[in-house]
Design goal:
The complex is a heterodimer of chains A (259) and B (289). Chain A is an alpha+beta fold. Chain A has two domains: 117 residues, no CATH class; 90 residues, Sandwich (Immunoglobulin-like), CATH 2.60.40. Chain A is built from three helices and 14 strands. In chain A, the strands form four sheets. In chain A, strands 1-2-3-4-7 form a five-stranded antiparallel sheet, with helices on one face. Chain A has a four-stranded antiparallel sheet with strand order 11-10-13-14, with no helix packed on it. A three-stranded antiparallel sheet of chain A has the order 8-9-12, with no helix packed on it. In chain A, a hairpin with a 4-residue loop joins β3 and β4. The longest helix of chain A is centred in the N-terminal third of the chain and has 24 residues. Chain A is globular and about 85 Å long. Chain B has 289 residues and is mainly alpha-helical. Chain B has a two-stranded antiparallel sheet with strand order 1-2. Helices cover 67% and strands 1% of the residues of chain B. The chains are: A alpha+beta (259), B mainly alpha (289). At the A-B interface, α1, α2 and β7 of A face α10 and α11 of B.
Chain lengths: 259, 289
Amino acid sequence: MRRIILTFAAAVLVAVGLGGVAVATSGGSTITVPRLDRAVATSFSNVYAQESAIEGHTGITPSSLQAKAMCDRGPNVTQSGPGATWNCLMSWSDPNTPMPPTGYGKFELNVHSNGCFTVGSPSSLIGYQTITDRRGRTVNNPAYEWDSCLDPASDDTPTGTTFPSALTVTSTTVNVTADGTVGVDLACGVGAGGCRGSVAAVTDTGVKLGTVPFTMTEQATTHLKFPTALPAGAKQVTFTATTTTGFAPPSPATLAVQG
Amino acid sequence: MSATTAPARGTTPRVRTARAGFSATLGFELRKLRAQWRTRAVLLGALLLPIPVAFAIHAQGNPPKDSLFGRYATTNGFALALLVLGYAGQWVMPLLTAIVAGDIFASEDHHGTWKTILTRSVSRGSFFGAKTVAAMGFAILVLLILSASTIVTSVLVAGHGDLIGLSGQLIPASQAWHLVAMSWLTAIPPTLAFTGLAILLGIWSRSAAVGIAAPVVIGFVLQLVGSMGSAEALRPYLPTSAYEAWHGFLASPSFHGPFVTGLIASAVWAAITLGLSWTLLRRRDITGG
């Protein structure tokens, strides 16, 4: 019994020791942005070409897609290592599926410590888990979700691919505060450099409520408050965002005044 | 005069001063292994267990997507065989080898036979060598049986369609056979590292229970160490990581760096554990029983 206890004590000691050495010597992860950029774009091209073949779209090959990815682990964290907060923005060209105005789709990654990762696709561009093949059968969509593994020794030079964050107006109505002013909620999506710019608010009666600047990191939300009080009789407010960094909404948001 | 007292040459058995050599000892060890029900049970298990496992996974309504190749395990035999490989490397293979390697020295403690063997029949060196070779040979044999049984069963149960690889590429069935077989074979080096660990723990603890269970537990601990983000620098050198070296074979372009690292790491682990084992055995006082 004593030996059994000793064995486990030794095992625990060895494990703690190894862990200590590892912590002391950890010199950065092999899971890096450039490696993910390349691995995600390559594997996406392969599975997307398979999906196109199933759907009967001709002329789509992995190389014809010219997929480019920019992977990002989120704001204020080291941009390497395993985790479930990785996102990749990817652009590709398929004449059958027009890209959204931003020019990219957002893919969500779960990266494991062994360098393997699962990618989840945006349904708006890739479709759902099952698709209909040319003969009308329901089959699995290979590009909906897929698994891949990183080569820890693969090329680690930056790909240079960057995509701006998409700025969105997240308010759905205009709420008047006690002092009679109004505000608007903004969200800045995944992307390089965050969002910077200003929002101008105009009522349906033509009264300007002011222009307010904003600066946000990527994956953040904020609330902007406009200086001028909402005049009586205004039923709608139109918010027009312009950005110097980030991708502004392609059309102004017109929201109804509550109450 | 004295000629009559001397026995005629060849009529009495010659006294064998030379102890039994390595090959004789190995033969004897193998006979002992063959006679053990436990050895037969492990071999039989390696042959038959993949069958219910393959059927059970194939019957799942929802494929086990959380594991690598689980996504297509219910519809593709190659993916099923690789899913099973992923699980087998976590604890099945260390356990299969430890069942024999953890007990092969400890059983002499259990039966109290150290004195009998080492004072009369064999040198410690050939005794250690024969037992080690027998344990490693058994580990390889059981892995080959497990691999063949899993691959054949998986393909018979879930079919042999084209496999989607780890870069999303389609791997034609003819190539998939080869890659899946190669992937299973990469489990041999880390399993031999665990054989060494089981031998060491069996000799040190003199208890078959420790020799068999502790390598599996240590395997889990090493997996935990490897999964910690801060221990990433250490990860490639753990025998448990070598069990995942096959991932690179299924990628396009394929990569073999982790396999080579795993091979070296496994060799070092085996050398250290066997070196320690031999030191312990050589210095052991067996006269006490």
